[in-house]
Design goal:
mainly alpha; 5 helices
Amino acid sequence: MIKTIFKIGLLVVAGLLGYNYFLGDAEEKAQSREIVGKAKDLGKDAWNLLKSERTKMKEGKYDGALEKLEGLYGNLKERAGELADSDVLDRINKLNERRNELEETLKNADGELSSEGKRKLNDLTAETEELMNEMETKETASPN
């Protein structure tokens, strides 16, 4: 519903902008040209941002994320040991295996993750966060 309203709103704005750009009076044309110029600048800025992110990625931006996950998994294993929860330990080990696979993929791809690799990294971090929330819930529920 919200997506539809947003799309209709964008369509109305684009229609008004196009109408004023070509058929409006002098003031409306000037305003439309200014908006189009700003949109071009925004597009250039977005392109520059993408290029800088690509450069960061080539320089090993994802290496740090994978190293942080490795440290996090060590901490989670300690907490899971305190909870004496073998299921959580198994899940941590599986997540760490997936992290190792991503690290190997990253090494083989000269520090650049494919779109599938980025998706896997996002999935891995989301599942790690979910596990952390579950562990936190178990810790607050335990009588210790």
